Records
---
Amino acid sequence: MKLDLNFVREQFPAFSEPSLQGWAFFENAGGSYPCKQFVEKLTSFYTKNKVQPYYPYPASALAGEMMDHSYERMAGYLGVEAEEIHFGPSTTQNVYVLANAMRPMWKDGDEIIVSCQDHEANAGAWRRLAARGMNIIEWHVNPETGLLNTEELKGLFSDKTKMVAFPHCSNVIGHINPVTVISQMAHAHGALCVVDGVAYAPHGFPDLKTLGADIYLFSLYKTYGPHLGLMYVDKELILKMENQSHFFKEGITRSMLTPAGPDHAQIGAASGIVDYFDAVYEHHFNEEANPGERNLKITELFRSAEKSLMEPLLEFLRSRKDIQILGLDHTDGRVPTVSILPLEMSIEEVYASLTRHNLMLGTGDFYAVRPLIDMGIPLDPGVLRMSFLHYTSMEEIDQLIGGLKLALQAG
């Protein structure tokens, strides 16, 4: 089955927006275009249901129903239970809340392993626990490839290890880490497994029960929806945490990790993301399936489309002697988030040329400061990052390659 790109792009208002015509979007790792299903639900909520939810009058009752629906629909696609889904302002803030909720579970001198491949969202709050009696064990990346080595991880465990935190994939390296294997390793040592899925989830929602992580986090604004962070927390684990909400919310799992309270409208509209997935599924497949089964087929469609887009780009990049590709230079085991270093020109010069050719990309460290430090890459100016999704067209890839040729030749 081949992805119907025309159908897909019809689901995203940005592709018909006049001010964006001619521009090719390659900064999707910083935030995807929102799908129309989400946009329409959010507009409807603000228009008709922007009241306190869960009262019996119609506008309020529907607001509550929309919020509950989002919990249930997200849980179905992720393969977990609705009570295990939590929405917060961002992944960074969700991790901050988690760190404070989990610290009372551990004793002074206990250890947590934190990878150096992380976006700082899944690193900073855990590392700050060093000031509160925890020992932080560094899991460094390979300085040449930027990859994590599970053999090295084996040597970092001890009888005091309580948790391992790492990304499903890096937001600058793009390599997909073996989450199931690492989860099993952590559990074998009696430790929890916390996975930052921010850079992975835009390329297909994971089946969380198969992965085996105890906590999994990602950002909905990078998966076609609102600027919220979603986290899965195992329902038995959350009851061991310290309540971070009002004292009378103790034991109400949906509230315990949201100290500021929920964003009613954005949560109510978040189900628009899986409405989009449903639309893709129903357009491509003529068979009944539950949400988990739909998710697997949709992910296969997305990943196949992305791989076909990556191949010509990586082939071009490999042919150049004047650039360095960070991480793997082939499509297997990675997502289409590709970072490079120009070797004969400055990043600023190349970036300026690409912008003149109507290419929207990003430069900098992307909060992936620690992997760049491990690899000896200066944080200023950092790297040039090209990130795309299943809705990207081959014409846009051609535009990117053409722009790179011209930018590199300008030197």
---
Amino acid sequence: MLTLPIKPEIQSQIAFAATLLKQGKLVAIPTETVYGLAADASQPKAIHQIFMAKGRPSNHPLIVHLADVAQIWDWGKSLSQETIEDIKQLAAHFWPGPLTIVIKKADWVPSIITGDQDTVAIRIPNHPLTLELLKQMPYGLVAPSANRFGRISPTLAAHVLKELGNKVDYILEGGPCAIGLESTILNLSGDQPTPSIAILRPGMISAEQIALVLNKPILNAPKQNNALTPIRAPGLLNSHYAPKTPFYRITENALSTEALISKLNTIFPDSKIALISHHSLSNISNLKNSLVSYHALSSDPAYFSQQIYATLHHLDALGFDFIFCHLDQKIIHSAEWLSLLDRLQKATLGCIESHQLYHFKLPLYHQDNQHA
């Protein structure tokens, strides 16, 4: 990873963040995926404050962030030589980067980090400020996404401030997140009924990429409660990453964006509607005098992932009655879209066809009844 020298004023901010963390405070940190809400991994009382600030269930495990692969061996227990070699190979190819591994935990690892499980999740993030900060934290940091539990992940410092306010003691400003989607989680703990290694949560590092590095089969993320997921991991709940505004996916491939906008105007003449898609409008006049606010994101999954959470934060703040997402089904069923579809599935209230919109009644879909 090519890094530029960190300016003295930024170094002082990093040092201040480290001081607060060592005092048991909470600091929001930038990563290449999303902003995390960090606590010193050696302080259970500070870690407990993460759960309180987020409203996160106490049995939901956290990811440990480290500065160097050499630190991992202190966290693991009874790792086989094969697992050690796998970790070294993965580290050489993907770290620092958006890959989290799950291994058997050492006896000393606090249960508050692992959700009372015998496994621990670890990664090395790819952000120069946070890597510099981690060098000053001997035991590393635990850092789930810096938002209220179940809500949209933050990809800007402003999102953190909006979500958590004074529940976070300091925000280390690191600019927009480069990837904008949570890390791939890979199970290397052996807690699965087959010799294959399984992805627990999809991310921008795919099963195919990992298989090429390890030269062994990698199973794609199974559904929650599947026999292949005997352990709990972040982001596996059916409802997650969700805006407060009712959010649905529309699946019809033959329906053009212009036709969908026209239909939305007809069905909801008195409502504020936001539509997300990746189609360019052939006739911009379709939006004239329309209550539909159209937001075109990239058809490239890498750019779409950078934009989607920030777009949802923006739309959620504008008081829309509904948000709809209409994506090209031919494009999104490719492997590159797997992680994005996973997030959209969890963030939306359902997958519908346009004819079902006629049955929507606003009082039944009030914001107060949305994702917990």
